[in-house]
Amino acid sequence: MDTKSPLAGIKNGKKLIKRYFLVDYENVQAHGLAGLSQLKSTDAVTVYFSKNADTMSFELHMELNACRARTDFQKVCTGVKNALDFQLSSQLGYIINQNLVANSKGVKYYIVSGDNGFSCLCSFWEKFGAEVELVRSIDSALNPKRGGELAALLSDFGLSERDETAVAECVAEASSSSELHNLLQKRLSTPALATEIYHALKPAVSIRNREEASDGREGSQQKRR
User: Fold this and answer.
1) What is the pLDDT of residues 176-199, one digit of tens each?
2) Which residues contact 167 (CB under 8 A, 6 or more apart)?
3) Distance between CA 37 and CA 140 in Å, rounded?
4) Do 31 and 50 have their domain in common?
5) Are residues 104 and 168 in the same domain?
6) Helix or strand or coil: residue 145?
7) Cβ–Cβ < 8 Å for 204, 153
8) What distance lies between CA 29 and its chain's CA centroid?
9) 113 and 28, same structural domain?
């Protein structure tokens, strides 16, 4: 095994890793990596990909390199059904066992995927005292309230799974209300639906942007001190 992989150890430099994000890139694509900039040096991200999903934008690659978390890529050989699922599950068990043997406390594991088949791992590892959660993106793991609010806002629209995923991606990527509107127009099935959803989501996204801007200002002030 690659000893540089975050799955080969429980530390990032001298810091103990507290959160592991195992990303099923074949399933979630770029949307699953939304939230990278919020990660800390006590986080680890492993991206599982295959020849069916092996492309990434320059912007996303730069964001991965810039984030403070320990990052790693694992290419999965295809040819066997659910090959990625098997490898991710196996390595999840490996790193959980490492932490249990080391008696590490307060460690959380996130499987980033839209494949509900992974939910059985959450209940299985709970028996052994390991906290495993299935999430759609890194951002939804870090901001569960935001994800719940989005689901509530969209519940009345009766969206298809495709459109629901597209909306979540747009919200994760948009840095302003106007950008959200543009993204929705491009990715949803009809312009009318995009406009209707935009008006429903606009207040929530505006609040998020103000909160993030406030966090940025506070961080700058602390650095100056």
Assistant:
1) 788 888 989 988 888 888 999 988
2) 150, 154, 159, 184, 188, 197, 201
3) 13
4) yes
5) no
6) helix
7) yes
8) 10
9) yes
State if pTM tops 0.85: no
The string of pLDDT tens digits covering residues 84-107 is 999 999 999 999 999 999 899 999
Last residue of a domain, one of 141, 171, 193: 141
CA 222 to CA 208: how far, in whole Å? Answer: 21
Q: Are residues 77 and 172 in the same domain?
A: no
Q: Which two tokens stand for residue 55?
A: 């492309």
Give the residue, 106 or 163, on which the prediction is more confident: 106
pLDDT the model gives residue 223: 46
The whole domain housing 208 covers: 143-224
CA torsion angle 93 4 39 101 (round to 10): 40
Contact by Cβ (8 Å): 19, 110: yes
pLDDT tens string 194-218: 999 988 887 766 545 544 444 444 4
Q: Which of 162, 114, 168 is nearest to 136 (CA)?
A: 114
Is 132 in the same domain as 189? Answer: no
Expressed in percent and rounded to 5, the helix, strand and coil fractions of the chain are 60, 15, 25
Helices and strands (H, E) in the chain, number of each type: 9, 7
Domain end, chosen from 99, 126, 141, is at 141
Q: For 128, what's the count of Cα atoms within 13 Å in the CB-facing half-sphere?
A: 16
